[in-house]
Amino acid sequence: MSITDPRSIRISSNLLPADGRFGCGPSKVRPEQMEALAAAGPALMGTSHRQAPVKNLVGSVRSGLTDLFGLPDDWEIVLGNGGSTVFWDVATFGLVESHSQHLVFGEFSSKFAEAVAAAPHLGDPTVIKTDPGTHPTATAQAGVDTYAFTHNETSTGVMMPLIRPVGSDDALVVVDATSAAGGLLWNPAEVDVYYFAPQKSFASDGGLWFAACSPRALERIEKISASKRWIPASLDLKIALDNSKANQTYNTPALATLVMLDAQVKWMNEIGGLSACNARSAQSSSILYSWAESRDWATPFVSNPAQRSQVVGTIDIAAVADGGVDANDVCAALRANGVVDTDSYRKLGRNQIRVGMFPAIDPEDVQALTACIDVAVEALRG
What we know:
Aspartate Aminotransferase, domain 2, globular, 12 strands
């Protein structure tokens, strides 16, 4: 007999993960980060961001990210308020000179291209697009001064290698790393700007953007600033750069976000840096994809194993007519048992689950999640 209300399904406590948070952002926050926030509260919360305690915190974050990414000494970590969505606007003012090329393979990789297309001071962007579940490849193009990549497409669970196009000359490679930064490996030699928000691998809140900038990118920022292009102060990369060098932001930042981020970056460096963080995510993704491939009702959405994300896993569930179940019912059953945020990306419109596998998520919990899904599907199939 099939289950009519998936929320009535009960999963044995010995099968449940130790932590049931698998969201793709906001993501699981480690208890130690909350402890750090409580400890920092009296000294930081409600104090001026222009004074030493907060500036020291910003300096710690910038230094920790530099170490985590293995950045050369002449790179800068720049930050500002607003998150990755705001950074797309920041980049249209402060990074793209006139013509950009964009690789589009999902919801979020399309956003930067749309922002550039709407900017009246820039030429129409070149867009190279592939269907969700795959990624395109950049090609050098005359007149392009900025190549826009996405390291990991959060909506589809596709990751792509970061390789500077041969023949791109002095053009910048600008990478949206929002769901990749801290979980995937990358080589600074192939990139000029690696930008992200801290609510995914860094297990913090949103509301801030960070950008690791190469000397070539810093030169572009200075050049555009000197050109007297009109730029709103809150979106001015030169202002953000100058403030970042002083370990502050142009306007008041979210201090709780910085505290949790700082605690996470310290933990990441303590466990072995980016390689160790990537190893945790790679182990989790191997567990998830191997499990899906062994079930007759589940399939990794990304067919090419080399393009399957190690930090965001998307798994198609067979339709009811084909012996499967409604993925929404699976997610409802899991949530009723304290396992949350496994829902697919809403605009993709597929019968699937989506699983965050960021470094803070224990691979053992991903293993437990697969067992819980098995129980839910069995009950739903009757």
